[in-house]
C-alpha cells in the first residue's frame, strides 16, 4: 500500500490534502509540519510520493526538493508541489529543482487525486 508524506506548515491544509486523497482507499499517509521534519521523516523511512508546500518557516520546499533529488535512494521519488505561489518563476524554479508536478492553491480535489494516482502508477510501472 503506497505511503505518502504530506508536508505543509498549515495543519488545515495538510488535513485538506489528506481528505482529498483519502478518496483512494489504497493510500496511507504521514505528515510533516516543516521542511526539516520532512527531511527527518524521509531519512527514517521510505515513502512512495511527497506532497509539498513551498512556503515553510524553516527549510523551504525548494530546498526539500533539492535534498530529495540529491539522495540516491530518493532520487526518483515523485514530488507534487502544492503552493499559493502561482507565478511562473516559482513554477519554473520548482520544476527545475526536480518537482514532478506543480499545483496552485486552491486546488481541485479531483485534480490532485488524479495527479497523485498517475505518478504512483508511473512509479510502479517503472519498477523492475
What does the model show?
- The protein contains five helices and five strands, in the order E-H-E-H-E-H-E-H-E-H.
- The protein is α/β, with parallel strands linked by helices and 128 residues long.
- It has a single domain (3-126), classed as Response regulator (Rossmann fold), CATH 3.40.50.2300.
- A five-stranded parallel sheet has the order 2-1-3-4-5, sandwiched between helices.
- Helix 2 (35-44) packs parallel to helix 3 (61-69).
- The radius of gyration is 13 Å and the shape is globular.
Features:
alpha/beta, Rossmann fold, globular, 128 residues, 5 strands, 5-stranded parallel sheet
Gist of the model:
With 128 residues, this protein is of the alpha/beta class.
Write the layout of secondary structure elements.
Elements: E1 3-7, H1 11-21, E2 28-32, H2 35-44, E3 49-52, H3 61-69, E4 79-83, H4 88-97, E5 101-104, H5 109-126
Parallel strand pairs: 1-2, 1-3, 3-4, 4-5
Query: What is the element string, with H for helices and E for strands?
Result: EHEHEHEHEH
- Domain module tally: 1
The CATH topology is what? Rossmann fold
* Strand elements, count: 5
Structural class: alpha/beta
Shape annotation: globular
Helix content: 40-55%
User: Helical segment tally?
Assistant: 5
What CATH architecture label applies?
A: 3-Layer(aba) Sandwich
Stretches with pLDDT under 50, minimum 5 residues: none
Biggest sheet record: 5 strands, parallel
CATH class: Alpha Beta
Strand portion: 15-25%
Rg estimate, integer Å: 13 Å
Mean pLDDT: 94
The end-to-end distance, rounded to whole angstroms, is 17 Å
Going across the biggest sheet, name each strand in turn. 2-1-3-4-5
- Assign the CATH superfamily: Response regulator
